[in-house]
Design the sequence.
């Protein structure tokens, strides 16, 4: 992957520092100009913990100067995400039933419904490019949470992840299925290929997952995000597949969404009942963050949906 | 049940039946389907479009009619 195009003087200095190999250069960075400027810089720093950039020295992942910048950006992001959340809902009885009910009760704009019925091929291609920022590293952020969980949810998350990563078969690895779909559509299947087009909401969506995955104290938010993501996936994936079929777009990309209809019908049950519920039971202090992570997933997807529907002149 | 008990079959209230491991599942028409995942979700509401597997359709059924 190659370094992205900066979106302001701050991300310009961060990107230049990464390219230079000398982490002290980041000290010359001014304050971020805009939320996008900050988000792109944070995204670039986070990527050092995944597969990195071709032109960046891998050792910079843990350079104290860059970790300090990352921490400041993370604190800002976390505070913003928490300010949007209204707190743990009150419920009686079973956590799993309450979590499913909360997710089902959430009413946000749906990109999948628009793709199913009305989107043009160009709009679908634009959406898939934005989705590629996450789907090409699908399941990677929550993978960091595996060693941070107590026994029962750790085993359950590993079981879910084994399926996400193809059950030992690279050709079934979900991120790789998506890359195959992009290539079949004539799009660039390489990581980071479309990050320069990603709006703030998409960058924030990706940064939130890395924030939750890379900080052990936020393990509750990490698996709560996963649970809400999986619990809002099967239906929308079926609609995406139907939209791709309506437009006669590549079978390979339909196969990616078809796989998720079935896989995520399993994963939502695993995530809510066998990962989040046992985590909350074993470590009750994580419950608030489980709900916070779930809310953040739904809220950020609403923001992405509103961005694209507004851009395309569609009323949500 | 201990914290680390691992049932092979889990009935999800209002949702599917989770099946852990490799199994051959026969549908209503007598057709056999091999499981392909570490855990599979078998439809219990009868409305799935990908039977015998769950596709999440139970969520669009009124709550009192769910399994």
Sequence:
């Amino acid at each position: 992957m190659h370094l992205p195009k900066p979106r302001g003087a701050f991300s310009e200095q961060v990107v230049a520092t990464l390219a230079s190999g000398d982490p002290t250069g980041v000290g010359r960075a001014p304050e971020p100009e805009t939320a996008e400027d900050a988000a792109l810089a944070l995204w670039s720093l986070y990527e050092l913990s995944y597969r990195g950039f071709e032109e960046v020295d891998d050792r910079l992942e843990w350079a104290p100067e860059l970790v300090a910048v990352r921490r400041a950006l993370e604190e800002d992001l976390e505070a913003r995400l928490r300010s949007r959340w209204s707190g743990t809902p009150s419920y009686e009885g079973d956590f799993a039933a309450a979590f499913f009910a909360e997710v089902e009760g959430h009413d946000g704009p749906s990109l999948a419904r628009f793709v199913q019925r009305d989107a043009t091929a160009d709009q679908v291609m634009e959406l898939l490019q934005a989705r590629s920022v996450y789907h090409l590293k699908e399941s990677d952020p929550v993978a960091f949470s595996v060693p941070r969980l107590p026994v029962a949810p750790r085993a359950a998350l590993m079981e879910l992840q084994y399926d996400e990563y193809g059950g030992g078969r690279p050709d079934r690895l979900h991120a790789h299925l998506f890359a195959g779909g992009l290539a079949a559509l004539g799009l660039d299947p390489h990581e980071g290929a479309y990050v320069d087009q990603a709006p703030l909401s998409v960058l924030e969506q990706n940064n939130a997952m890395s924030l939750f995955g890379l900080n052990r104290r936020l393990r509750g938010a990490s698996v709560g995000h996963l649970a809400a993501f999986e619990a809002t996936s099967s239906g929308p994936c079926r609609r995406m597949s139907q939209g791709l079929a309506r437009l006669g777009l590549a079978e390979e990309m339909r196969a990616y969404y078809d796989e998720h209809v079935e896989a995520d019908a399993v994963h939502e049950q695993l995530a809510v009942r066998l990962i989040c519920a046992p985590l909350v039971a074993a470590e009750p202090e994580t419950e608030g963050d489980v709900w916070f992570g779930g809310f953040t997933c739904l809220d950020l997807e609403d923001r992405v949906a509103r961005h694209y529907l507004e851009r395309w002149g569609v009323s949500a | 049940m201990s914290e680390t008990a691992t049932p092979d079959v889990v009935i999800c209230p209002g949702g599917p039946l989770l099946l852990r491991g490799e199994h051959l599942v026969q549908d209503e028409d007598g057709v056999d389907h091999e499981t392909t995942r570490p855990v599979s979700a078998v439809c219990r509401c009868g409305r799935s479009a990908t039977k015998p597997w769950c596709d999440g359709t139970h969520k669009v059924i009124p709550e009192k009619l769910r399994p």
About this structure: The interface with chain B takes residues 96-97, 100, 104, 151-152, 155, 159-160, 162-163, 167, 233-235, 238, 261-266, 268-270, 273-274, 278, 282 of chain A (CB under 8 Å). The domain at 95-311 of chain A is CATH 1.20.910.10 (Heme Oxygenase; Chain A).
